[in-house]
Amino acid sequence: MATLADVAAQAGCSQATASRALTKSGKVSEKMVRRVVKAAVELGYRAPFGASGTSSRRRAVVGVLIPSITNPVFATSVSVIQNRMLMAGHRVLIALSNYDPAQEADAIATLLVERPAGLILTLCNPGLDLAVSGEMPHVVLMNNRPSERFPAAVAADNHAAGFVMTRHLIEHHHRSILFVSGSFASSDRALQRYAGYRAMMEKAGLQPLEALEVGFGDYDGLDLGEALRIARPTAIIASNDLLALGVIGALRRDGLSVPDDISVAGFDGIAIGRMINPVLTTIEMPDVSIGAAAASLLLDMADNGAAPRHLEIPFSLRAGGTVRRL
């Protein structure tokens, strides 16, 4: 296991400077702090309890990893988690993966430098080997299904959500339905929603269409022209509400009306979907409940020795005005 001396040697500073940088307990330049933290992450170093600046009187740290702070779903969950942890006397550190599996392990390693009492993680793919050095603390997955490595999880059933949304469109007599998604490699939630779409299409005797994958965050400049010409859909399901809004914008730029020309639906139930006209048809995910349940489960495991468990949070369909009956 890496020592403080190893970190100092790799960062090119004294052990005292490395200790001050990691514990934030003295005057150290921001440049040196970044060098020391980078060295600690690369070496898999975690400071021992009782080190300067990490006494037992200091509040325990809980690390939270989310894909993006710009999606209101994750922002709401983080707010709920922080309030719950503050009530329990814990500090909260937040890290972002930016939907990038390569950044994910680095973000977790950075959180581990702080020797957290526990982690709440929303992962791109919980089944992948994160290759993070050192022993992991208590971990609760949020918005992911449990995996062999991380059996504690709080999530809605995204496969069922995709099934229900597709059934809603089929009940409105849509037969050619296109699924537009962020990268499946970066979101198992999107992949599960697409799997639910395929399952319902096949159950109805309809041909599922290949999903159109777009980059996360590239929602405001979507070009659906080629996909529309090839698939000729009467309805589009987007893997989340922000993407659904991007789809609506792209359709309008192409001179198409929603829902008169093409129906659109999403997932998550973010507030802005209720503010547009017509109101967005979506699957409402209980982000407040998911965040609260994840925080409570982690505290139960860390403080009471409770066994890891999987909590499934119910979702609901919100039938808005962006889907019309053919």
TrEMBL record:
- What domain of life does the UniProt record list for this protein's source? Bacteria
The UniProt entry's coiled-coil ranges are none
Record domain HTH lacI-type: where: 2-56
* Family matches, as Pfam families: LacI (PF00356), Peripla_BP_3 (PF13377)
Q: What PROSITE patterns has UniProt attached to this entry?
A: HTH_LACI_2 (PS50932)
InterPro entries in the record: HTH_LacI, LacI/GalR-like_sensor, Lambda_DNA-bd_dom_sf, Peripla_BP_I
Record's SUPFAM superfamilies? lambda repressor-like DNA-binding domains, Periplasmic binding protein-like I
| Keywords from the named record | DNA-binding, Transcription, Transcription regulation
Name used for this protein in its record: Substrate-binding domain-containing protein
